[in-house]
Amino acid sequence: MTEKxxxxxEQKRRxxxxxxxxxxxxxxxxxxxxxxGLFNYLYGFFDLxxxxxxxxxxxxxxxxxxxxxxxxxxFGGGIAAGGAVIVARYYGAGEIENARKHxxxxxxxxxxxxxxxxxxxxxxxxTLLRLLNAPDEIIDAGIGYFNIQMISTALIAVNAxxxxxxxxxxxxxxxxVLNIVAMIIKLILSYIFIFIMxxxxxxxxxxxLIAQGLLMVIALxxxxxxxNSFQIKWHELxxxxxxxxxxxxxxxxxxxxxxxxxxxxxxxNSMAAFYGPLAVAAFGIAxxxxxxxxxxxxxxxxxxxxxxxxxxxxxxxxxxxKTYAISHLYALIVGATLLFAxxxxxxxxxPIFTTNSDPLYMTMIKDIYFWEKFSTLTxxxxxxxxxxxxxxxxxxxxxxxxxxxxxxxxxxxxxIFQYLDIGYVAxxxxxxxxxxxxxxxxxxxxxxxxxxxxxYGYMDMHLEHQRQD
Length: 469
Description:
The protein is an all-alpha fold. The chain has 17 helices and no strands. α3 runs parallel beside α11 (299-313), α7 runs antiparallel to α8 and α11 packs parallel to α15 (375-391). The radius of gyration is 22 Å and the shape is globular.
């Protein structure tokens, strides 16, 4: 079969990623993703604002359930990430037909896995919430919200594949435009449901479901279009072994690692219930305020992975490593700048997230946030280093890092702090220490990886043989 010919615009973008000024390339690809990351953050941000006008129990329910949703989304998102790495590698090498076939396999696999997960979570929703130690108040206030959010994860999985494939091309501007449209629809519907119709938290989730559904319709149209260089064809859909095995090999460590990372937050929320529903809500608000800068800083991981994968496809080893260095520097600069801004305006931002002005509640949020805010720097560093390993197809490192962060650091530390009866501020300590130690570990892993590449090369590529960028 002959290779699909790229359009002039797409060929120009591909050449830019492979040969353009790398500082500009990283910034150009990352900027739309940063805005996209901000909009993703705003989904949860506005959900929290909306439900804060209902009750504190509704806030706690949203905080608790959203982390479960994030854990479920890890499967579809992980498959999309692993598939995108393979697609980008073929795309960078100019093997467009191979890229197209793996794009279709990623779609089939993500849709199958996410559908099974949705069915299981809907059947055993209340049981799952009770196993996670959710108080009855949270279950009663949030079971409808939970069910709708679980359904939305299947739609989000399809959208994640679409987004991953467009990122593999470096076409991040399209991702931004479509998600702005989805965000506007979500906001309008949420406002109508809560402030005009006076509905509960379930309708906030319904607004997300409708917005993601509309985005999915557009994504399907583009993915199946004959004008798409990664066109997915109905008659080719299926779980073909020779296509899905390489994707699963890369994706399993990624989605397992992402799942464990999100599960860690779920379990921390579960253990936070030890301090009462108010502590769960305070912890969620502190995380959400700190999450704004973090959601923007970590996007450099996503652009970095695409650029690294494409350049490795063209055997540009030195350029791939330089991409990591530039991405990490950008992430730290952007993260530090936004962290300073949010910290400076914290007292103005806090009333937006809650209508409860109880002094004890305000103190709880501030105490937890004091420690959580540093995650903007540590988490973005971890993400960028992880992105390097994913781009080089060492996805097991992502799994290893997240297992360490969860099982050896975050949960044991919280158990120790609760045993010592430190109080609710232990939630902040745990996030700070687990992220800091994981960042140090990640840096050590990178140093060993770089020494290995410099000494032995990578897939018969060697740094001393590479041209200077």
